[in-house]
Amino acid sequence: MASQRDVKNKISSVKNIQKITRAMEMVAAARLRRAEQRIDALRPYADAVRRMTRQAAQAAGAEASRMPLLSAHESESRVGLLLVTGDRGLAGGFNSQVIRAGVRLSAELDEQGKQSVWYSTGRRGVSSLTFRGLDLSGSYTGFADKPAYADARSIADDVIEAYVDGKLDRVELIYNSYVSPLTQTVTHERLLPLSAATISGEEDDDEEEGQQSGPRALVSYEPDPEQILRRLVPDYIEISIYRALVESAAGFFGAQMTAMRSASENAGEIITEYTLQMNRARQAEITQEIMEVVAGAEGLA
Fold first, then answer.
1. Contacts of range 198-201, beta carbons closer than 8 Å, 24 or more positions apart
2. CA nearest to 251, candidates 147, 106, 105
3. Which residue among 134, 147, 209, 213 is buried most deeply as judged by most CB within 10 Å?
4. C-beta atoms surrounding 154 within 10 Å
């Protein structure tokens, strides 16, 4: 059995760790609140961009299908996989579940005879993919905790250029969407080309029709809807990437807060166990001393 001093040292070490995990939990909670505010501010803007893009595509008619970012390539031999992860760990399976989803999708593409071209945001994703021996065509780090729109624009410029130049035939986006501090859902979206269902927003149309009735206002476009659509589509891709970055940031802080809370609770259980162990050791030492005193007294009798 360990001595009281050894157990006390263990308790002290665990208490120090518990202080750190509690501090990290509070920091993550504060950052999570700010990240939630960014999501609440972004979602109406993202929905507005999608609505305007859909209306412009409907007004453009057949011209929309001939735009480079809206038209699929004749063959799909190279598929870009854009993974959105965090710059740091200590967040449970937050980063690993995105990486696993990307690897599974890559395996499915390999079975179909298609080549995967890797892009990743966040140091965790970049380091993990590099460790697996995969070459990255794009790596973006240093802004996972607080992404800016310029970061999303930089990523969008790279994938759009690769798609237009024919280096990519499709682009898939994989990230953790934020549901609650306890729940982050791995989300898989097709980023390029924008499909007819995405750009037409058939599901959104059904929801809008159910929510409002009556005639809708006619929109007069100046310049023509084709030019407006050419400007809106890149914005749509940029805002989709930015939304994924913001959702991932909030999800990371939620996952980290939950993981640190669990670690603090586990540390408390270990402290309780060590305290009981120390009490047993103390009782054993006292019992031993009493037996020695009794034995000494009997020897003198």
1. 199/53, 199/54, 199/57, 199/64, 199/70, 200/54, 200/57, 200/58, 201/50, 201/51, 201/54
2. 147
3. 147
4. 15
The CATH code of the domain at 4-26+263-300 is 1.10.287.80
pTM of the model: 0.82
Q: pLDDT tens digits, residue range 175-194?
A: 999 988 888 999 998 888 87
Yes or no: say if 88 and 124 are a contact pair by the CB < 8 Å rule: yes
Whether residue 200 has pLDDT greater than 70: no
Q: Where are the domains of the chain?
A: 4-26+263-300, 31-208+218-256
Three-state SS at 170: strand
Check residue 283 and give its pLDDT.
81
Query: What CATH class does 31-208+218-256 carry?
Result: alpha beta
pLDDT for the residue numbered 123: 94
Average pLDDT of the chain, as a whole number: 84
Q: Is the distance from CB of 170 to CB of 79 less than 8 angstroms?
A: yes
Q: Which of 268, 244, 286 is nearest to 38 (CA)?
A: 244
CB atoms within 10 A of CB 96: 15
Strand 78-84 relative to strand 136-140, pairing: unpaired
